[in-house]
Amino acid sequence: MKYKFGEKEYDLASRTHIMGVLNVTPDSFSDGGKYLGLEQAIVQGLKLAEDGADFIDVGGESTRPGSELVSVEEEIRRVVPVINALSKKVNIPISIDTSKSDTAEAALQAGAIIVNDISAMTFDAKMASVVVKYRASIVLMHMKGAPQTMQENPTYENVTAEVKQFLSERLFAAKEAGIEQIIIDPGIGFGKKIEHNIQLLRELKSFTSFGYPLLIGPSRKAFLGAILHLPPNERIEGTAAVVTSAILNGANIIRVHDVKEMKRVAMVTDALKSEHIQAAF
Questions:
Q1: Cα torsion through 131, 174, 181, 79, rounded to 10
Q2: Which of 221, 263, 264, 273 is catalytic?
Q3: Quick one: pLDDT at residue 29?
Q4: What is the rounded radius of gyration, in angstroms, for the C-alpha atoms of the chain?
Q5: Fewest C-beta atoms under 10 Å: which of 108, 110, 240, 264?
Q6: Is 264 a residue of the active site?
Q7: Is residue 196 packed enough to be buried (19+ CB in 10 Å), middle (13-18) or exposed (0-12)?
Q8: For residue 10, what is the enclosing H or E element?
Q9: For residues 211 and 153, what is the distance between their CA atoms, to the nearest angstrom?
Q10: Which of 168, 234, 263, 265 is nearest to 207 (CA)?
Q11: Euclidean distance between CA atoms 53 and 31, whole angstroms
């Protein structure tokens, strides 16, 4: 699992890597509106890097349940200046969170090197060719439906089996297209009820059979709010519990808002997981 992102190489199996979330949107469920200004976004991006992020994931369109679509032009307007500026200031890979190939291309031109596509390249037929053109990496995520409707009574006969089947098909498509570096994400919270998220987390280890790095994004999600009866900004302990479980069950990358805190959680969990105790320190 040694992946090269530009000049940066990570052994993604050596420890848990942290992807920091940077939403430049007015309506994201947790931090919408906080980083809309360019200066605010840059300051937050630098803070994520300082707090220990291994990646920064920049998004210009909310994917919360019921969110409204954003035009390509508006999405590009939001993300490209941020990526352009941050790519000159931080020495860590930048990811663009989009399912639109035109946005992905503009972001890759601006300095991003990973495309995090919640549709696993099913929404835009041109996405694979853009990823290949720029020799970018891709995150393939499972989602049932679209953000606007995904939480309207999603049903599964066996959520783990169905998510694995979908990711298997998308992995094949990505490899056939010539994409070299692929990361998979079962899509916690995307078109799934509480019981679906819990089953996926309990059975997460089964996804390691693909042999690709596994990314999990549980940060402040609604299912944690349902369990804890708390708003997004008070779900840090719930996030930490899921992060710990995910790491122990094979996750390689954790996508979170609270980088400093989850970095610490990951370090302790990695030590607990390590077969060679001294090597963990």
A1: 40
A2: 221
A3: 47
A4: 17
A5: 264
A6: no
A7: buried
A8: strand 8-11
A9: 32
A10: 168
A11: 17
Kind of pairing, strands 2-5 and 8-11?
antiparallel
- Whether 202 is catalytic is no
* 145-186 per-position pLDDT tens digit: 776 666 777 889 999 999 999 999 999 999 999 999 999 999
pTM, two decimal places: 0.92
Walk me through the domains of the chain, giving residue ranges and CATH numbers. 16-280 (3.20.20.20)
Spatial strand order of the sheet with 17-23 comes to 182-185, 137-141, 114-117, 94-97, 55-59, 17-23, 253-256, 215-216
Write down the pLDDT at residue 70.
87
Active-site position among 255, 260, 263, 273? 255
What Å distances lie between residue 101 and 19, 22, 24, 105, CA to CA? 21, 20, 18, 6
Alpha carbons within 13 A on the beta-carbon side of 99: 18
The CA dihedral of 103, 105, 108, 110, to the nearest 10 degrees, is: -70
Tokens of 275: 């077969």
